[in-house]
Specification:
Elements lengths: L1 E5 L5 E5 L11 E3 L8 E8 L4 H5 L6 E2 L3 E11 L2 E15 L6 E16 L2 H4 L11 E3 L3 E3 L1 H10 L39 H4 L6
Parallel strand pairs: 8-9
Antiparallel strand pairs: 1-2, 3-10, 4-6, 5-7, 6-7, 7-8
Length: 202
């Protein structure tokens, strides 16, 4: 597969890379090659192995497509490394109301910053200001775990096939979006008529 980046002169460089097999998601960048001028990667590769999370029960409502498109802009300021990306793809979800499968577009912009790992981080003694930061220590950075995290964060907490989805009948389980419920409600049940005539003491 190809990685393409646009340099500050507007020239496109093509690199060969192996990307996005989720169990071993690998996009590595050499720290020395990250300059102050932004570079851009555009990536399209198989991510079908994300479905291992579904099979393992970690992501229960979603199935992932074979290909996800990721664009990533990165640059440095001093020793801090800045990343801005965008995810685009079509995801299959299972509606939280009617349980029917449906497809929806996944689009998400994301940002993250990496700072040099302090000695305190290696000792497990982070200060309050250092907590919540993301660090790098090696000469090569694997940004793939950050991309994978953003894919999962972009998923809706409760997928719905439509805002007006009526869900399933709690009595017979019929999909109320497709047909009328045949159940008798308590209001229509003649056996409940006696109870409606009763008045409770105050």
């Amino acid at each position: 597969m190809e990685l393409r980046y646009l340099d500050n002169r507007g020239e496109i460089t093509i690199l060969e890379a192996n990307f996005l097999r989720l169990t071993e998601l690998v996009v590595k960048l050499s720290v020395d090659t990250i300059a102050e001028a932004p570079k851009e990667l555009t990536i399209a590769e198989e991510i079908g192995e994300l479905n291992l999370l579904y099979d393992q029960g970690q992501v229960k409502e979603f199935r992932f497509p074979p290909v996800l498109e990721v664009s990533l802009i990165y640059y440095r300021s001093g020793r801090e490394l800045f990343f801005h990306g965008r995810l685009e793809g079509l995801i299959e979800g299972r509606c939280g109301r009617c349980l029917k499968s449906y497809s929806f577009p996944l689009k998400k912009d994301f940002d993250f910053v990496l700072t040099p790992e302090p000695i305190s981080a290696r000792k497990g003694e982070l200060s309050r200001d250092e907590m919540g930061l993301s660090f790098y220590a090696a000469e090569e950075i694997n940004v793939s775990p950050f991309i994978r995290e953003q894919v999962l964060l972009a998923l809706p907490t409760r997928p719905l096939c439509a805002e007006g989805c009526r869900g399933l009948c709690t009595g017979c389980g019929v999909n109320l979006n497709e047909e009328s419920c045949l159940c008798q409600t308590s209001e229509d049940d003649p056996r409940m008529a006696f109870f409606r005539t009763l008045k409770l003491d105050q």
